[in-house]
Write a sequence for this structure.
């Protein structure tokens, strides 16, 4: 398969900050990617450059094998509604969706109507008077109903309540199953999107820290649950990412892959293996990578 | 090309912006002008500048086309070239619409003898010197000029920030002041006024269109690298 997006050594410098520091990655078609990282890590900047909304200081980004800048062939196959998206003065959601229908060849009005219903979006209110959640819903509906070959969602859940967020995740999966495409979902709520994403890209301070299959990432650690004393004895000497205790029961997440034999051993000793929280794992990996980078920097200074 | 045409449709989806607001402002200005004319106790023809009111709307629309509609067009995956061309064509259409309104207003004033109070908002003698077509072009050029100034100002602001916009405006103002100073020093005001009168409103409007073209080029060059 050829990559839909190919990024090489992308940098973006603002006056005194480096938003992207040599990012290289490739995005394969027909997959849901999680672009994860803290606020200000460079997620929106990266997506902006890929859609030619912003410009790189150096490096190259190719989408469908071409440069996206001023390229209608490439741009018309992408959709990126940013988290702080602006809409024309006095526009209502109805105006915004009418416009989207003009520009996105695969626009599905039935899907849009259903989502409007789902999110109970007021269609005649001007967008500037909508709540934060309703504003997010407008962006989510454009992103889903446009069915663009490459769709970016930029923290789409901001201000949405738990029910609305679940609606978004459900509709995304449903529609993706029927119409496979490339979806890049930027988020800092990692656990919420963990079940959606097939591949994880972690970005921190403009650098890619992790670019792996979600399952492979999960395999990097293991959670063991059981009698607190036994669990602690087992985790002795291992790198503990997280520990929870309730009464006599403890749950410990440790870094490192377990072999089949080791897994059997855990089960035999009366302990249970539980799924790892992707969020805790990534937070820890991010901190670790940050510390290593810091150490490397200090060494360079010496 | 069809995507550029779609930008025109995008700009006109909300007809309020380009059509209804200028129309309402114009109607209000006419109403207020006529009321004032009716209160002035003289039988001489009365002229006023109420017709310029919707031009300021075009200035604001030009700014908001850049600050609000452009970021939205980016989410619609429109290229900057498509957006710029489509928006400029929309402004030309809307300005032509204003020109037609101006003609209709002038016609009404002729037929009703200045709303029955001998007062005029549209049918100003100097503007109509070159006939109805001339008057149309004058008003069309003015509306387009205001739009392009608003759009260019907002583009410069977005691209380089408030400081550069202020410096550029200041530089422009200083040049104008310097020209005025020069004319005063050389005692050429008489020639200048005669020149302007010779050019007539139509001649000035045509020069205005040249300025519009120049500003459009400047604003396109700045706009090519603008970010939403």
């Amino acid at each position: 398969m050829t990559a839909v997006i190919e990024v090489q050594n992308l940098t973006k410098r603002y006056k005194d900050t480096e938003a992207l520091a040599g990012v290289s990655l490739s995005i394969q078609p027909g997959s849901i990617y999680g672009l994860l990282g803290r606020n200000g890590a460079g997620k929106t900047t990266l997506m902006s450059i890929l859609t030619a909304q912003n410009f790189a200081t150096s490096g190259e980004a190719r989408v469908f094998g071409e440069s996206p800048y001023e390229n209608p062939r490439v741009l018309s196959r992408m959709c990126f509604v940013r988290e702080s998206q602006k809409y024309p003065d006095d526009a209502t959601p109805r105006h915004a969706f009418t416009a989207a229908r003009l520009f996105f060849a695969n626009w599905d009005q039935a899907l849009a109507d259903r989502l409007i219903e789902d999110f109970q979006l007021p269609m005649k209110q001007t967008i500037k008077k909508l709540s934060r959640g309703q504003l997010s819903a407008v962006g989510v509906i454009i992103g889903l109903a446009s069915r663009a070959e490459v769709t970016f969602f930029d923290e789409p859940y901001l201000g949405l309540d738990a029910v609305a967020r679940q609606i978004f995740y459900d509709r995304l999966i449903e529609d993706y199953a029927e119409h496979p495409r490339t979806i890049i979902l930027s988020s800092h709520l990692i656990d919420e999107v963990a079940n959606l994403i097939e591949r994880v890209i972690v970005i921190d301070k403009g650098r890619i820290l992790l670019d792996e299959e979600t399952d492979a990432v999960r395999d990097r650690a293991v959670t063991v649950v059981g009698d607190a004393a036994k669990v602690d004895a087992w985790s002795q000497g291992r790198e503990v990412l997280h520990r929870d205790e309730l009464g006599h029961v403890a749950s410990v997440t440790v870094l490192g892959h377990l072999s089949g034999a080791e897994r059997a051993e855990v089960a035999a000793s009366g302990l249970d293996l539980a799924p790892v929280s992707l969020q805790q794992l990534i937070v820890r990996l991010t901190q670790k990578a940050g510390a290593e980078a810091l150490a490397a920097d200090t060494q360079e200074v010496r | 090309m069809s995507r550029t045409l779609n930008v025109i449709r995008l700009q006109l989806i909300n007809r309020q912006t380009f059509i209804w607001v200028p129309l309402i402002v114009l109607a209000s200005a006419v109403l207020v002008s006529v009321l004032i004319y009716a209160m002035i106790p003289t039988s001489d023809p009365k002229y006023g500048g109420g017709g310029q009111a919707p031009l300021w709307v075009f200035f604001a629309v030009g700014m908001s086309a850049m600050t609000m509609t452009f970021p939205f067009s980016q989410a619609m995956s429109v290229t900057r070239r498509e957006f710029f061309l489509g928006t400029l064509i929309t402004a030309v259409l809307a300005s032509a619409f204003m020109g037609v309104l101006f003609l209709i207003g002038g016609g009404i004033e002729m037929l009703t003898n200045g709303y029955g109070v001998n007062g005029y908002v549209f049918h100003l003698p100097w503007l109509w010197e070159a006939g109805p077509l001339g008057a149309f072009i004058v008003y069309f050029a003015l509306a387009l000029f205001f739009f392009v100034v608003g759009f260019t100002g907002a583009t410069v602001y977005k691209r380089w920030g408030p400081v550069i916009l202020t410096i550029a405006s200041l530089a422009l103002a200083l040049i104008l002041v310097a020209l005025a100073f020069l004319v005063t020093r050389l005692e050429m005001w008489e020639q200048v006024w005669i020149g302007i009168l010779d050019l007539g409103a139509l001649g000035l409007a045509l020069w205005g269109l040249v300025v519009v073209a120049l500003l459009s080029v400047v604003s396109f060059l700045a706009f090519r690298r603008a970010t939403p």
